[in-house]
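User: Modeling request: complex.
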Amino acid sequence: MAASLSQKNDARETQQAAARQKQDEALLDAQFELVEAGRNAVLVVIAGSDGAGKGAVANRLYDRLDAHYVETMYYGTPSEEERNRPPFWRYWRDMPARGRIGLVLGGWHHAPLLARATGEISRIEFERQLAEINRFEEMLTAEGVRLLKIWLAADEKKARKRLAALREEDGALRRPVVIEWEDVDTKKERRRLVEAGLEMARTSVGAAPWLVVPADDAEARDAAVAEALVELLQRVNSEPPAEKPAAAAAANKPGKARRGPRLDLSLKADPTTYADELDDLQDRLTEVTTARRFRKSGLVLVFEGVDAAGKGGAIRRVRAALDPRQFRVHGTSAPTDEERARPYLWRFWRNIPRRGDVGIFDRSWYGRVLVERVEGFAAEPDWRRAYDEIVDFERQVAQADYAIVKFWLAISQQEQLRRFQEREANAAKRYKLTPDDWRNRDKWAAYEAAMADMVERTSTAFAPWTIVEAEDKAYARLKVLRAIVERLEASG
Amino acid sequence: MAASLSQKNDARETQQAAARQKQDEALLDAQFELVEAGRNAVLVVIAGSDGAGKGAVANRLYDRLDAHYVETMYYGTPSEEERNRPPFWRYWRDMPARGRIGLVLGGWHHAPLLARATGEISRIEFERQLAEINRFEEMLTAEGVRLLKIWLAADEKKARKRLAALREEDGALRRPVVIEWEDVDTKKERRRLVEAGLEMARTSVGAAPWLVVPADDAEARDAAVAEALVELLQRVNSEPPAEKPAAAAAANKPGKARRGPRLDLSLKADPTTYADELDDLQDRLTEVTTARRFRKSGLVLVFEGVDAAGKGGAIRRVRAALDPRQFRVHGTSAPTDEERARPYLWRFWRNIPRRGDVGIFDRSWYGRVLVERVEGFAAEPDWRRAYDEIVDFERQVAQADYAIVKFWLAISQQEQLRRFQEREANAAKRYKLTPDDWRNRDKWAAYEAAMADMVERTSTAFAPWTIVEAEDKAYARLKVLRAIVERLEASG
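Assistant: Request completed. Predicted assembly structure:
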């Protein structure tokens, strides 16, 4: 009888080992295809109760995958560097490139859960944060990042025992384990944690639902997680590659042309007072950006406009009033390959200034709904969803106490031609006009329509557009400086 | 008489303005060529007395250059992020790409000067740090970074007055100014500062001498700095482009072949005790890396060896004992374009772990003296100087209390063939052998010679090589784990 039982056990173990090996191979095969295709990144979010083995699950997955293309992402108490940026900055910073798998321990979900459980944030704020998470995940999905969200559900009593045992061992934690929630101690806090955990179901949306995995049997738990990952990878690998957008898409159809806002381009600065006004505004800008309170906020400046609209000259007048240690100008040209391998907004997130600093963007994330739309570099669904994504992005930045001031510098088509000709006549080799510059002139109407849509759809209370009549350069520079100074003085 | 004086003044001012404009154009032209060529980055180090106008000089240069390709680099008290890395990490992090100009306020020179003046470091330590700076700058120069080092020399009394005036104005600093040295107050400290400043002349070496610029007349000061930059840029732009190295260079000449160390590849682990030994070593590794004192140090592991030597399997056994939040595996494949645009070691500096973490490099910076040498990807002078550069790099990391453990996994040519054939026979599509793999086998002797040189020239007391007889995988894994554990336990 004993022998027969042991034989049965042996047989079961052999079976299990064979299943595990088959799964190992399936995992590696699917990962290899993901790497080869280089189209999608995958994030495996591992969240859930403490003591349910989040660290063990990550370790086990890491073990079974090809480690060259896997990274672990873990977010504890924010570091100084992280505290000095908007909260989601750290998730963006670590975003894996296409072809790679990120194992996200706890994910962006744990911070709000913990804050809610300890009563640090209200129910309403908690729900706002969940909504933010949803939009973040939708955006990632639309950009080709695939999410597998695992919720490890442990029997609470067993989990507490396991934690206690881990803590006793030598008085130190011997084996890897994630315990962020050991602070949740009172009954009231536990109750709130359970409630908040239920609410977490609300982040189970569309393309990124939670998969609840019972965590009490380690073997079964790991097998379930691996199976889910194999399935996801196989689905991702069988997706057809996105089609290239048809060149010069919708926006160029003549029937769709919209006019921008009516502007009085005859506005001019008074040449007799210009120098004094400029000086005065620059002094005020210096004062407000060197004030102690500015160190707790930050400033993001966006300059958009057609070629030769005078963005560079305006930026120069702003810069001159700033401490050179405090700002950086970001010219937005072709993305690098590290940037192309990640969601569109990554290259802008990585350049968000620290609090107390100024980020000046000479062209910006609006490229997607301007040049990329008009020239057909982005597919129509991509630039259409960009409006909302950009508003979300700017909302996050504004909520972290940054001022955002956005400028569209407007000139007439005649003035642009005049400036182009002037450039060609001058010392010039630096200002070599490319065929692109002339071609863009042909699309004036398309750019005007794109600009009108952009201003309408992305002017928000926290990040409004300022349209600058820029036919007279002096007038434009004063208006730009005044808008920045007034914005900062008002928020002081 | 008065009229004639005023006329003279007017004439002088007109002349000055004309000279300034000519200089502006020369600056922009030269910068434009630098950008176009995309071969060199330029660092303008602006150091010198306080109150001499370092900030003003940087601001002025920034103003006159095309801001898209300029960045300001400023280093104050190290941030948390910076303190948790070797001291030079922050200079590497900000290294501008080819075609760009970095304005370095104070540079890497101010920190040792200040530390010496306040008596925080001894004269000997100060000189050691100067020598480190010299090697750093030599390496940058060899990698195509061009340095302009400006030392602003102010009349000490005037400088103190200017500082005092700046501090009084509204009680706050109104205009950009750099004052790191306001702490240097006592007579003794001032004397030491002057002495140390004289010593600084020792960093005036070879390709990167200091240019001392009198700073009392702002106009003349800015003109002198701009002139020096124009000269440097024009010299850089007229350098002939580096020649491509002749493919498969020196190392392949049969006459030069050297043998690696004699190894006993018959060494085998005892299969009856292997599992227990492995378990025991992994436990010890977990213990030592989770101990409190480990948080103040860090661990860098380097794995090198021919294809199929078993690097992945060994890394897996190490990883399994580590907390997944604590390590990252860096597979070293083709550099990204952001990496190619910077000095060779940049891609490794950016991956140096924080203190308390573990960086595992599956292939590493040794690529330059292995594959790049053998395949002729690097020119001979480049890989020859790499030995010393690597030793410098590792010395800096070791001095910041990191343990560095480096492994060469050695197998016989027969064993490699056997493993290749095994891979081809197996599930295999993941292990597709490329023509490269077979080609590399033909260069076995060349790789062996490169490896022998590498071990000889880069085995140091602080970062010795461990040669691992890897014909038996189990033996190799135990030897790797044991070397790491013993290294960490010894330093405890």
